[in-house]
Amino acid sequence: MINIILGDDNITYTSDIVTNLNKQTDINLKGFANNVEDFMGKVEQDPPEIAVLDFMDPIEKGLRLIDRILREYQLSVIVISDVDDDNFVAALRDIGVAYYLMKPFSWETLVQRIKYVHEYHENMFNLFYVHDRRLIQQFLIDYFSALGIPPYLKGHRYLLDAVMLVSQDNSWLNGITKRLYPAVARCNRTSASHVERTIRYAIDTAWSKGDFAQLQQLFPYTIDPEKGKPTNSAFIAKMADIINFHFKY
């Protein structure tokens, strides 16, 4: 059960969200507040696992509120707002917000993000969705497709997670078997060995059915001399480098 508290001064906008959150069997909406004082009272009385809030008008006051919550309580913060500004997004990231969801959005989307943060943020994933994160994911999907890794392969999903994680912190490659595979596995409700096998199968599929000339061009120095194809770690590292080059984290 995921315990959350929701705070937003727009009661009309959030009424449908509150109604549907209360219907979720795996999410416990411990309380809803439409002002900061009431919201903080609920958090202080019984801290949730995730705080979902707006209160971003004015922005400076909202950022101070979030900073206080993160310093005083062991919880994750999802910010919901209609502010579309890169400096604002960067400020949220810098103070440690787990996720920024821009309004308008559906209650289904919020439910998905709450579950996503619950699963990934607890397992050391940097989940903060800067504006170009969806572009990065789509870039990877297109890139995998061009290499011959179709989306219906399970390894495709695991590669997305692994590459995104390594692109943020390449130290994960120092423990790919003991750290990276288990982290991806936990967040996909499977085993580390399954993650390793299916990623291997996805790469094998690319080398057997993809554009071999393009593959050799991309991986001229990462080919396993015995197998004629890159190892899982080499493939993930190369794709993470490509992401960092194109999007400059």
What does the model show?
With 249 residues, the protein is an alpha/beta fold. It has two domains: 2-121, 3-Layer(aba) Sandwich (Rossmann fold); 133-247, Winged helix-like DNA-binding domain superfamily/Winged helix DNA-binding domain (Arc Repressor Mutant, subunit A, Orthogonal Bundle). The protein is 57% helix and 11% strand. The protein has eleven helices and five strands. The chain has helices spanning 11-21, 36-45, 59-72, 86-95, 107-121, 133-147, 154-168, 176-187, 192-209, 212-218, 232-247, and strands spanning 2-7, 27-33, 50-53, 76-81, 99-102. It has a five-stranded parallel β-sheet, sandwiched between helices. Helix 7 (154-168) crosses helix 8. The chain starts with a strand and ends with a helix.
Features:
249 residues; alpha/beta; Rossmann fold; Arc Repressor Mutant, subunit A; 2 domains; five-stranded parallel sheet; 11 helices; 5 strands; elongated
Summarize the structure.
The chain has helices spanning 11-21, 36-45, 59-72, 86-95, 107-121, 133-147, 154-168, 176-187, 192-209, 212-218, 232-247, and strands at residues 2-7, 27-33, 50-53, 76-81, 99-102.
Task: Determine the structural class based on helices, strands and strand pairing.
Answer: alpha/beta
Unreliable runs:
127-131
Largest sheet descriptor = 5 strands, parallel
What is the CATH topology assignment of the largest domain? Rossmann fold
What is the total tally of β strands? Answer: 5
Q: Which architecture of the largest domain does the CATH hierarchy give at level 2? A: 3-Layer(aba) Sandwich
In the sheet with the most strands, the strands line up as 2-1-3-4-5
Question: What overall geometry do the principal axes of the alpha carbons give?
Answer: elongated
Q: Provide the helix percentage.
A: 55-70%
Mean pLDDT, as a whole number?
84
Please write the CATH class name of the largest domain. Alpha Beta
The number of helices is 11
Q: Specify the CATH homologous superfamily of the largest domain.
A: Response regulator
> How many structural domains are formed by the residues?
2
Question: First CA to last CA: what distance?
Answer: 34 Å
Succession of helices and strands: EHEHEHEHEHHHHHHH
Q: Quote the beta fraction.
A: 5-15%
| Rg on CA atoms, Å | 20 Å
